[in-house]
Amino acid sequence: MLNVIKIAARNLRRYQRRTILTSSLITLGVVAVLLFISTTGSFKNMMVGQITDSMIGHLQIHRKGYLASIDNLPLNRNLDQRQVAKVKEILSGLDAVESYSMRIKLGAMFSNFTETTNIRLNAVIPEQEVKTVPLLSERIIEGEKKDVLLQKGEILIPELIAKGMKVKVGDNVVIVANNKDGSVNGKTFVVNGVLEGISGPGGRDGVIHLDDAKELLRINGFEISEIAVRLKNKDDLPRIFSSLKDDLASFTNKEGNPVFEVHTWEKLSPFYNIAQMINLMTFFIKIMLVAIVLVSIMNVMIMAVYERINEIGTIAAIGTLPGKIMALFVTEGFLLGVLGTAVGTVISLISIAAINAAKLTFDFGRQSNLVLAPTIGAEDVITIMLIVIGIAGAASLQPAFKAARMDPITALRHV
Amino acid sequence: MSLVTADNLEKTYRIGEISIKAIRGVNFTIEPASFVAFVGPSGSGKSTLLNMIGCLDPPTMGYLQVAGQDIANMDRKQAARFRGEHIGFVFQDFNLIPVLTVFENVEYPLLMVQNRPAQKRKKQVNNLLDAVGMGDQGDKYPSQISGGQKQRVAIARALVTNAKLVLADEPTANLDGETANRIINLMKKMRDEFDTTFIFSTHDPKVMQSAEIIFTLEDGELLQRQNDNGGTHA
């Protein structure tokens, strides 16, 4: 085999310019794909990280039917104490769960004593919330970033309301809300901070203490709207989701319908569709790379066979078996693929390191100065390398087969 | 026992509806270690006959035995293996592989056809290169040597596998008279040294004279056989 490789390599060297051009084309394709994967992957991971770590958590548990009417933030679909206890029991049995946060979600009127607007609020237990969505405190753009998110009587308000209503940290505001029975109640809060708005559900919500929400909504006993769960490793999400779904499915009401519903961040955030679109684009970019490699290698190998017909006749005449002739040409295409891929991978990795060192920034939606930090896993690099090299070999098959099947006499007569 | 036996050998080519008889019922035998020439005008069937003997082109009819084997019904792979084991080829245009050095060109059949171990290859190749007077040119590429030298290398390549039979189609056609003479003498010397049968085709009268047996072909028919002692057979 080494001899076949040696002769194939010599033949590539024979047509240096063509070899360089073809391998450059493959290199360009590999660089484009790896840079695309690394930058979009980085963007995707960053956005997913923001969504899961500052708002949603990795998955959420609600009472059945809550999600269908989440736009209204219904208070009559809350989980009661008994149901919450069951969920807590299941969660505590899962090692992969890092933390969870119990929330009441409500819609209310927000007043600065001169103007009124509507506001969506998350009422949380600060200690639980900080552990479950650790990046939430990073979103406080005005006010002190304390270890404890907020105290009772304090409120974190979204940036848009702060600007629109000209409310500053330390100001008193009034929150008025209807409870599930329809009665209205109001409570005064001190603005403790302003939260940067981000895309997605909950990205423009205010935050208050759970006890304040209970007081405001006149909730006697214990009830919550949702439980956000954070996993130690987000790669465990499919497994834990499946396990939780199975465990929670065993709880049914009197009619035999399930009591709980569990959803991953993917179901809860519209960004998942963007992430899927990025995956789709990556797939099509890979298809384009395959096409580039296929067409360029096949073209070069067809030319190589055509130019060496007489030579093929000679080696066939002196007894080279058709399989070996085929191996010579397939190896040639394979080596072209290896050369282009190796150079492309090296250039890509250097480029990724350079982009990281340059700390380029970009804006996304209302967020600005996001640092572009492309990263690529060994798995992606190896996959691309294998695809390109495999396609290079496959693209050589047809010309190589033609060479192997060539009639020695016809080939020897070729001028 | 004869090295080559042809009995009522025929070759017909079909081009669409037209059939062209290139060889018409030829009979001959060639003994081992002979120095044989097939002569005749262009289109007389010399190359076709050589191609059939060389297992490159199967006969349409008749019996053809080479080195004790009936080669008329071999498939592509069997024919390739047979050529690799028993037959060497020398071509009019030398047909050396341009990306390989002189040494590697001669080594090629041992390496890619017979899969011989490296040490044996090296010894065999050096012996042959010395025998054809190219021992000091092993590192050169075909583009760096003359036509006569290329044909010497081609002869070494044909003999390196210890082939019983070397077929040379117009081996001197692209060489000047003096070089052609030297090549023919070299082939004769190799025949003497290795007991290899050389069969070549030519229409060069000077080259013809060097052959010990001459078969004259015309329109695909064998007209006569002439020995170097002057004897002829119809």
Characterization of the model:
With 415 residues, chain A is of the alpha+beta class. Chain A has helices spanning 2-14, 16-56, 81-92, 126-132, 159-164, 210-216, 237-249, 265-268, 271-307, 309-317, 322-358, 378-404, 408-413; strands at residues 59-63, 79-80, 97-111, 116-124, 140-142, 154-158, 172-178, 184-195, 206-209, 223-224, 226-231, 260-264, 361-364, 367-371. Chain A folds into 2 domains: 2-51 and 273-413, no CATH class; 65-258, no CATH class. Chain A contains 13 helices and 14 strands. In chain A, the strands form 3 sheets. A 6-stranded mixed barrel of chain A has the order 3-4-9-6-8-7. In chain A, a hairpin with a 4-residue loop joins strand 3 and strand 4. Chain B has a single domain, classed as 3-Layer(aba) Sandwich (Rossmann fold), CATH 3.40.50. In chain B, 35% of the residues lie in helices and 29% in strands. Chain B contains 7 helices and 11 strands. Chain B has helices at 46-53, 76-86, 102-113, 118-131, 147-159, 177-194, 205-210; strands at 4-15, 18-30, 35-39, 61-66, 69-70, 87-90, 165-169, 197-202, 213-218, 221-227, 232-233. The model of chain B has no long low-confidence stretch (mean pLDDT 87).
Q: Concise description?
A:
The complex is a heterodimer of chains A (415) and B (234). Chain A has helices at residues 2-14, 16-56, 81-92, 126-132, 159-164, 210-216, 237-249, 265-268, 271-307, 309-317, 322-358, 378-404, 408-413, and strands at 59-63, 79-80, 97-111, 116-124, 140-142, 154-158, 172-178, 184-195, 206-209, 223-224, 226-231, 260-264, 361-364, 367-371. Chain A is of the alpha+beta class and 415 residues long.
How is the topology of this model organized?
The complex is a heterodimer of chains A (415) and B (234).
Chain A: H1 2-14, H2 16-56, E1 59-63, E2 79-80, H3 81-92, E3 97-111, E4 116-124, H4 126-132, E5 140-142, E6 154-158, H5 159-164, E7 172-178, E8 184-195, E9 206-209, H6 210-216, E10 223-224, E11 226-231, H7 237-249, E12 260-264, H8 265-268, H9 271-307, H10 309-317, H11 322-358, E13 361-364, E14 367-371, H12 378-404, H13 408-413
Parallel strand pairs in A: 4-9, 6-8
Antiparallel strand pairs in A: 1-11, 1-12, 2-10, 3-4, 3-7, 3-11, 5-8, 6-9, 7-8, 13-14
Helix pairs in contact in A: 1-11, 2-9, 2-11, 2-12, 9-11, 9-12, 11-12
Chain B: E1 4-15, E2 18-30, E3 35-39, H1 46-53, E4 61-66, E5 69-70, H2 76-86, E6 87-90, H3 102-113, H4 118-131, H5 147-159, E7 165-169, H6 177-194, E8 197-202, H7 205-210, E9 213-218, E10 221-227, E11 232-233
Parallel strand pairs in B: 3-8, 3-9, 6-7, 7-8
Antiparallel strand pairs in B: 1-2, 1-4, 4-5, 9-10, 10-11
